[in-house]
Amino acid sequence: QHYFIQSNLSTSPVISSYRYLLGSLLSAGRQQLRKLPSSSTSRFPPSLRHCSSTSSFPPSLRPISSLTRPPVTGSLKGHVSSSTRSSHSAPPMTTQQLDKLKLEDGNATTEQVITPWDVVAGDEKGIDYDKLIAKFGSQKLTPEMLDRFTKVTGHEPHHFLRRGIVFSHRDFDQILTLKEQGKPFYLYTGRGPSSGSLHMGHCVPFMFTKWLQDVFDVPLVIQITDDEKFLWKDLTLEQANKMAHENIKDIIAFGFNPHKTFIFCDLEYIPSCKDFYWNMVRIQKCVNFNQAQKIFGFDETSYIGKVSFPSIQAAPSFSTSFPEIFGNRKMPCLIPCAIDQDPYFRMTRDVAPRLSLHKPALLHSTFLPALQGAQTKMSSSDVNSAVEVCDTPNQIKKKINKYAFSGGKVSIEEHREFGGDTSVDVSYKYLEFFESDDAVLADVKQQYQSGAMLTGELKKMLIEKLQGIVKEFQERRKAVSDETVALFMSRRPLQ
Predict the structure, then answer these.
(1) Dist CA 201 CA 379 (whole Å)
(2) Distance between CA atoms of residues 33 and 344, nearest Å
């Protein structure tokens, strides 16, 4: 505390958005400061020598309850104003920002944060997806819609659909109508190459998209946003593009139909495709900075590349961005994606009617949690939170045994008596994603909750399941050659 105050970092623009945290720390410690003898506190700044109340603190260091909170950006990544503001006159947080973060003096209550860049749950049970549906204004997938899906396609719903892993939609009923009428549409999904290899969380949308392509028998475009990762990560263009090509090999290994699938990197495709770029510019003209700021949390320190990027992710929603594939046809599209990507496509759906184009339909999936618990999603930035598709069997075993959060009790005796909690147990949650047999999963749940199955036994089951999936994936990945990549990235009409 002494260091921050004496070095005047409390008035630095870098700290201004977080000084309320320091204020809360000081508030929590004021009782200890009061107990110190005067000889010990004489070295403190005068404003902290006699902390009988929080009003003794400088305004910039008072706890939240006595100070207007400074603004926090939509992505909560630490973007703060580049202007040197006085810490005594910080503007108040907006209602939207307060919804994302609630801190009370002496008591912290965490509100879940879901943006394209940050995912944090409100408690150990994970994201409240019903709240997200209400907040984002999407629709919940109902049993009636799944029954209609079976009637229209002749296929039983994927276990992601049956279990609520794919839980929300926008206009999926219209896609079923198109299928019923024999009218064309296409699939669109994507990947931001933040690492050289995918992890199991990345696999979820691609596994589901592969199944959708097989069931609907439609074309698919996959966007690799290497430009996005260059803008948001500490990467060179060359590094981002190299990781993109490694990720493309991983994606091909899911078994997509090469005659129905086009994969492209933004850094390579956009400079040479006039129609894609023109659609980007049309989208950019329809969204002003104030709107982009509200949707994505941009501020005056955001790079202009970040502010313009949403138009790049929106453009593949329109078939006219791909003249070599679809010609001049205006075809609707269905986008399977994780729910954190929805802001991009809410914007796209608002813009589409103004461009006389179809609104994209969406299917939203939940997040595969980090190994440490459901408070956040699996992330490439923390290798210990993720099982990667390049991991060895031994690495998978070590990660699950060491890091997978358990819902079991503290002792075998207590666990046998009271059973485990499947609502927080990461191993069980992973089996919900990767064990497709409903009867097997139901049996595991019953045994674990009753105490008949121990945490070690549950982890062993998950380890064997993931080892098998990863082994099969790695074998398919080895078969992906440079020629195969060139085929998927070639511009040609799709069947």
Answers:
(1) 8
(2) 48
